[in-house]
TrEMBL record:
Residues 178-192 have a biased composition (Low complexity). It comes from the Eukaryota. Residues 123-155 have a biased composition (Acidic residues). InterPro entries: MYND_ZMYND11_ZMYD8, PWWP_BS69, PWWP_dom, ZMY11, Znf_MYND. Keywords: Bromodomain, Chromatin regulator, Chromosome, Coiled coil, Metal-binding, Nucleus, Transcription, Transcription regulation, Zinc, Zinc-finger. The lineage of its organism: Eukaryota, Metazoa, Ecdysozoa, Arthropoda, Chelicerata. The keyword Hydrolase does not apply. Residues 312-347 form the MYND-type domain. This is Uncharacterized protein. Pfam families: MYND_ZMYND11_ZMYD8, PWWP. GO terms for biological process: regulation of signal transduction; regulation of transcription elongation by RNA polymerase II.
Length: 351
């Protein structure tokens, strides 16, 4: 990354590292502080070799820290450059024939003579196991020698041929020991081993029918099925009981809820009817009182008007003829009837 002096609006020139250059400008990251990143225009970029007087930068504490960080960054870049240029290549360090990091060549064993017909399978397996163990030991030795060879990479290449020759001799001697040990086995031991193996196989074949008959005697499948059936029946019966109990409980709860709701509705209806009845009674009472008051007033007026009128002494109709101080008649006929009846004896007008 290029090192430059970059300037943002409202800030002085500051040392920075160019991350990317595109059409919009320079994408830089400033030294010091929080290592902030910004996109700066091309005209606000100066080379890092520019003097501080040219860019008119004031020596502040933050600028000094940023310049110190810039110098440390330049020193690290210089050290990396020197290290990459002064490091010797791998080709120049190795002289002579290039060293191969593979396993040492193994000596091919000569084919062994065919085994006798009386040799058993177990004897062959034991010999093969011994040969495999010897091969594993050879591989372990070769691996350890490879580790020693890798640790001695700085040694001169002239010692490689002698080391390879020594490895070949050791591997050939180990292979010879393996062949000799396999050839030294006596035929009598092989025959006895095969006989013992044959007897064991016959004994195993004789015992096989007993092993096959043993599971037939045990009627575990039927027992398991019976136990499973009984357990399932118990679970089903328990499930039915719990289901019936739960249904009954739910029915009772629903019935209680319905009764409570009905009672609540009836109570609400009764309360509403009682309220309406009280309201009707109040309205009727008020209307009756008003009607009584009107009747009383009219009756009083009628009484007053009646008192103001004069009435016939004979028929109690409204009188128009006056006889004496308290005797009046509505007509001449009433006057004559009353006169002959009794009034002629008490009439004050006559006296």
């Amino acid at each position: 990354h290029d090192l430059v002096f970059a300037k943002q609006k409202g800030f002085p020139y500051w040392p920075a590292k160019v991350i990317r250059v595109d059409d919009q400008g320079y994408d830089v990251r400033f030294f010091g502080g929080y290592h902030q990143r910004a996109l700066v225009e091309k005209g606000s970029i100066k080379p890092i070799t520019t003097s501080l007087k040219v860019i008119a930068a004031k020596r502040t504490t933050a600028l000094n820290k940023a310049l110190d960080e810039l110098r440390r960054h330049q020193q690290l870049l210089e050290q990396q450059r020197r290290g990459s240029s002064g490091r010797p290549s791998e080709g120049t360090m190795q002289t002579g024939v290039p060293r191969k990091r593979g396993r040492p060549p193994r000596v091919v064993q000569p084919p062994l003579p065919p085994p006798a017909t009386t040799r058993s399978t177990s004897g062959d397996e034991e010999e093969e196991k011994d040969e495999d163990d010897d091969d594993n030991e050879e591989e372990d030795k070769s691996d350890s020698e490879e580790q020693e060879e890798s640790s001695e990479e700085e040694a001169p290449s002239s010692s490689l041929p002698t080391k390879r020759l020594r490895l070949k001799e050791e591997s050939s001697s180990e292979d010879h020991n393996v062949v000799s040990s396999s050839c030294q086995e006596s035929p009598s031991s092989r025959v006895s081993t095969s006989t013992q193996t044959h007897r064991k196989m016959l004994a195993g074949m004789n015992k096989t029918p007993n092993l096959e008959e043993a599971p037939a005697k045990c009627d575990c499948d039927t027992k398991y099925r019976q136990a499973f059936r009984e357990h399932r029946e118990k679970l089903e019966a328990k499930y039915r009981e719990e289901k019936e109990h739960l249904i009954q409980q739910i029915r009772e709860e629903v019935q209680k809820q319905c009764e409570a709701e009905k009672l609540k509705e009836v109570s609400a209806v009764l309360e509403r009817m009682r309220t309406d009845l009280e309201q009707h009674k109040a309205r009727d009472k008020e209307a009756r009182e008003q009607e009584i008051a009107k009747l009383q007033e009219r009756h009083r007026q009628e009484i007053s008007e009646t008192k103001k009128k004069q009435w016939c002494y004979n028929c109690e109709a409204e009188a128009i003829y006056h006889c004496c101080w308290n005797t009046l008649y509505c007509s001449v006929e009433c006057q004559q009837v009353h006169w002959h009846k009794e009034h002629k004896r008490s009439c004050r007008r006559k006296q």
